[in-house]
Amino acid sequence: MENRYGSFSGTADAFWYDTEGKLIQAHGGQVQKFVINGREKWYWIGEDKTYGYRPCSGIRMYSSDDLYNWKDEGIVLRTMGSVDEFEDEYFKILYGTLSLEEKEAIFTDLDKNNCVIERPKMLYNEKTGKYVVWFHADGRFPGCSGDYDKAKAGVAVSDSPKGPFRLLGSYKLNYHNDPNGEYGFDGWEKRGSVRDLNLFLDRDKTAYVIYSSEGNRTTFISKLNEEYTNLAADRDKAVEGKDFTRNFIGEFREAHAMFFYRDKYYLMNSGCTAWSPNPARYAVADHPLGPWTEMGNPCIEEGRETTYGTQSTCIIVVDEEKGICIYMGDRWREEDLGKSGYVWLPLVFGPKYGMALKKEENWSYE
Ligand code: DGJ
Q1: Among residues 30, 160, 272, 357, which one has the fewest Cβ atoms lying within 10 Å of its Cβ?
Q2: Which of 121, 194, 195, 328 most suits a substitution to test ligand 1, by most atoms within 8 Å of the C-beta?
Q3: In this predicted model, what pLDDT tens digit does every residue of 268-294 receive, in sequence order?
Q4: 275 close to ligand 1 (CB < 6 Angstrom)
Q5: What whole-number distance in Å separates Cα of residue 185 and Cα of residue 193?
Q6: Which option is the CATH number for 19-312: 2.115.10.20, 1.20.1050.10, 3.20.20.70, 3.40.50.2300?
C-alpha cells in the first residue's frame, strides 16, 4: 500500500504509514531538522513497538522532506536476544573491543526480552561530529523484577542519525544532596533516578537533559558536557542551581518537551498516570534551567482534561518567523502499544507567552 499524505490526521488519529506502507513505529519520539551533505531533511526518532511492549526491538528512525511522508531508515539502536550476539558482525563492530564484564552491562540495557527503552531523543554535536541519543533505560535484570526500578538514562553515539548507534552505557543522574530529603518511591538509595526524559539544545549549543526523578515527584534539568554524552559536572560534585535545577517539586510531571520560541523557553509536560492521558501543563522561563513560571493547561477545547487523549513527546518549531509550531503527542493504546497513535496538533501563541494547543483533524501547517 502506497500512501502520500498532504495533511496530519490530528485528533482523528488515523493509522500513519511510512512511504512503503508500513505502520510508523516511532513512539515517544522527536522530530528535528538536520542538513547533511547540503541536504536538508526532517528526522524522526522513536520507540519501535512492532512487538508491543516486548520483545523490545529498539529505536527506529524515519526521514522526510515535508513532515507528512516518512521514509523508514530502520532500527538505529538494536537490541539483542543473548550475549552470544556480541559475536555477530553488527555487534562486533560496535562492541568488539569491550571486556566481558562491559559487554554484560551493555546487554542488560539491550536485552530485548527484559529491557525497557523509552522516549529516545537525539542531538547533533557540532564539535565531535557525532549524533548522540539519550533514552530512558529501564527494565528487568537478575535481582530486579520491576520494569521501572532501574531508572537510568541510556546514552548512545553514531556518526549518522541513521545509526548504527553504539551504547556507551546507562547512568543515574543528578540528585538533591540531602539524605533526609524527599525522594518519593525511589528513596535516597536510588537517588539520581531517571524515568521520562527529553533533551534540549540551546542556541549557544549548550545541551540539557530534562527528566522525572525522585520517584517522578520532581523534574530535573541538568546541563550536559561538551560532547553531550554525560552530565557537565560529576554528579557527586554537581551544584544544585548551577549544574542542575529541580523544578515542579512534588508535582509528579513527565513527558517533558522543551523548546525555544521567539524570546522564551517553554516546557510542556503531563501528569503521571501510566499510559492513560491526563491534563498537560506548560511553563515559561528565560533560561533552560529556569526558574519556570507555570502557565496552566494549554488545551483550549473540549477534551482538555486528557490533552485530547494524548501525552506530549516533542514540540517542533517548524518556522519561528511564521509562527508554525507542531505538538507531537502519543495516543497510547495500552492493550496494543504498537498501534498507539501519533496526534500532531498546531500550537498557537498569544500575547504574554500564552500558548494554546488546538484540536484539529486533517490539517496542514503551510
Ligand atoms: C508514561 C510514560 O510517559 C511512558 O513513556 C511510559 O513510561 C508509561 N508511563 C509506562 O506506564
Answers
A1: 160
A2: 195
A3: 999 999 999 999 999 999 999 999 999
A4: yes
A5: 10
A6: 2.115.10.20
